[in-house]
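User: Predict the full complex structure for these chains.
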Amino acid sequence: MKKLLLAASAAALLAGSWLAPAQAEYLKEHRGGTIRLLARSAAGTLDPHINYTDQGWQMYQPIYDGLVAFRKAEGADGFSIVPDLAEALPTVSNDGKTFTFKLRKGIKFSNGQDLGVKDVVASFQRIFKISGPTSGTFYAGIVGADKCLADTKSCTLEGGVVADEAAGTITLNLTKPDAEILYKLALPHAVILPADTPAEDMGSKPIPSTGPYMISAFDPNKGMTVSRNPNFKQWSEEAQPDGYPDVVQYDFGLSEEAAVTAIQNGEADWMFDALPSDRLGELGSKSMDQLHISPLSAWWYAPLNTRMAPFDNEKARQAVAYAVDRNTLVKLFGGKVLASPVCQVLPPDFPGHEDYCPFTKNPGAKWSAPDVEKAKQLVEQSGTKGQKVTIIVEDTAISRSIGVYLQSVLTNIGYVADVKPISSNLQFTYIQNTNNKVQMSVTQWYKDYPAASDFLNILFSCASYREGSDASINISGFCDKDIDAQMQKALDLGVTDQKAADKLWAAIDKQVTDKAPAVGLFTPKRLDFVSKRIGNFKFNPQFNWIITQSWVQ
Amino acid sequence: MASLAVFLILVLACFSAPLYAKWAGTDPFASTLDAVIQIDGADVPVMEQSTEGLGLGYTPIGPTWRLGNYFLGADSQGRDVMARLLYGGLNSLLISGAATIFTLIVGTMAGLIAGYFGGITDTVLSRLLDVLWAFPIYLLAISLSIVTIAQGIAIGPIEIQSGSLWLPIIIIGIVYIPYVARPIRGQVLALRHSEFVFAAINLGVPGWRILWRDILPNITTTLIVFVPLMMALNMLTESALSFLSIGVQPPAASWGTIIQDGQALLYTRPLVALVPGLAIAVSVMALNVFGDGLRDALDPRSKVRLGRD
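Assistant: Here is the predicted structure of the two-chain assembly.
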């Protein structure tokens, strides 16, 4: 593993020292102009250490940098980790527990300050000082993190993040090996900010950045202006390439219908929100050239509460899994072009994914048709027939229609079901809190990074279940000690042999699917609608459309 | 009378909802995305997939204009909009009617007691009504609905399940109590000082008996006038709450929920939202015109007006 990392580091150094001819040519030809983006609302706080939204993470890509980054590329390449503010991928020692990074020289923040190792140390401390949303999960393995989590204000991460000013290195010490640490370091929650950034949520105040762009204006009710960082000089095309537009103007407040019309009229270039379902047919036929369909590593699913009747009975859960017609759900989502039926947890083309579907007419690799008779038999056998089930869904057109469909399915197999739509702002936390006694719900999970554990371990491990908490992401309350032990084994195995670990994750995926703590509904695809003038559209599997790698002139 | 006739026709149509659904052979509450119907001998899918270009999205069938066979087309779940419109009207009428009765009973009692007994009783009741009055009606109704929508209400032995029609009935009933109680209190205050009430008091007639036998009959006209006007207001409130997903819960229908369903189809199937909107407008207008006529006929000198002016 160490040798591989060194080789990758050398290649990265070579690649980063000069502009690839194609990019240089294109930059000459297409540099300039303003890309206009639209969203119904802002993505919340501007603070990259706190913001945990797709919308925010996508926008941070050309603005902030971590020690490492996901390659700004399309397809599977976009999942690979490349050195960013670090000169090379880290050298690994101490049995995979110590990672040493050498910081690049000559990089400046957008406010003119030089980037130094002190900024790196302060940024890691800040993740804990501001109680970042992933400080207790992704970064809890750093030495000293336990103390920081207990007492955030006096966090030093002593022995965990060690800087050597003279050598320009940062050493990251972990309490135990973590095969996914580089992925975690490439997320916006671990970007490097100036050391003097206040240890509080910066809200609407932009923080100086190292990337080719900086946030120059922000009003959460109106919009955000992202302009060029005057201090940026490209150091790595694959980690942080220079962008084409001079300005990215992100406006908030327009409805989805109005946004579509604005893009059709050339008044805007792209919209973040999903396209309205009643415009799909028209756009799919008249504006094909402006549509981009891209796969997502995501899962629409219906968690079943394994700690409450009737779904504390495995047969009752399996009955629902057998009865649901995934084709109908795909229809509700917009058709086969926009979604694919699934039975299992891990999405297609994801590490650890092996096609598997036990809950279908002809059990095997793929889902074919619902088996309603089998479902009815299982309901009879479970002795849960006639019980009341309430399905909690988000108050959006698609979630509501999925909820209504599932209500029909449950009624058909013998339950007395009803649906409750709850405001989208509340539903996700509501269904997690055990005090609300939610029996069944409809929700989605989008990967944080490309690892099987990000689905299986997070959604179905015993540790992810917290009674009475709004942050109990194991919504099903599923806890199987044997499966838990296997997940731990797979995590440990990933440090030395990722392929073997992925094999084990595939087996775990099958076991979790068999126990049916949730009904897999479908895997969605991303549909981007852009204006006619957008060129060079590139979709990164980690952070979606790479906005500043498209041109408008 | 024409307005009453229009309203009665709507009521009759809505109460025929189960018969219509049975005759049409349709279940207005179940998803029927794969259904195929026959039009002029040809099989037509209820949900039509786009066949042009990328083939994105499904569009529900539009109006067939054939009674019993998707007359107004289908919604995004493939359900017959006409059947849902009738069931929706039934729920809207039931909720607004029951809420009107609730408001009138509680509001009248509050107005009678406050106006007749006066003193501390009047002060306490009037301040309570002022507190209710101080909240914007829709804000109060929305807040109460959000609080109760998921878990229902459980106060002592009284338990109302979430999803029950009693929830919107009680919430709408509560928020409009001051609209009835305050004018009634005013009238009772005036009646309290009339000679026949003094006479009854001096004869030793108990207070409750005076209220029941002497005062209540004198405010009956006002109460009758209130019925259609309150019902119109309640119908609008119910539609608003259901449109916001905090009134009638799916898969049940009300005109508000059908408009909400139709919102996602405005571009391709605008009738799904327009028809229930039209039904609400016609019903409310009929009730208001009838209410005004009733007031003019029964109580031409009355200054009772709904609203805060």
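The radius of gyration of chain B is 24 Å.
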